[in-house]
Amino acid sequence: TILTTTPNTLVSPIHNRMPVIVPRSDYGVWLDPAASPGDLGVLLTALPANQMRSTAISTRINNVRNDDPDCLARVEIQGALL
44: how many CB neighbours lie within 10 A of its CB? Predict the structure, then answer.
């Protein structure tokens, strides 16, 4: 299962939702079997955009038959290498 949330400012130009990314500092709460739904609910938010980065990669990643490092090769978009 992938839990999604409203996107942050980095992801919103690309998609209308993003995966929930639990910060390392909250792993203990996330993995605590005694945690209440309220304790966990506050973690279901977008990671701040300033804690992420974006890199354009090849569309080869969209095909399951492609399973090699070239899938993650950076690509040029609008005249700039991202």
Answer: 12
User: Contact at 8 Å (CB) between 73 and 57?
Assistant: yes
**How far does CA 28 lie from the centroid of its chain?**
20
- Asked whether the beta carbons of 38 and 78 are under 8 A apart, the reply is no
pLDDT 10s per residue in the chain (82 long)?
A: 899 999 999 999 989 999 999 999 999 999 999 999 999 999 999 999 999 998 888 888 899 999 999 888 888 776 554 4
Q: Beta strand pairing status for 76-77 and 80-81? A: antiparallel
Of 12, 5, 3, 4, whose CA–CA distance to 49 is shortest?
12
Handedness of CA 39, 24, 72, 75 (dihedral sign): positive
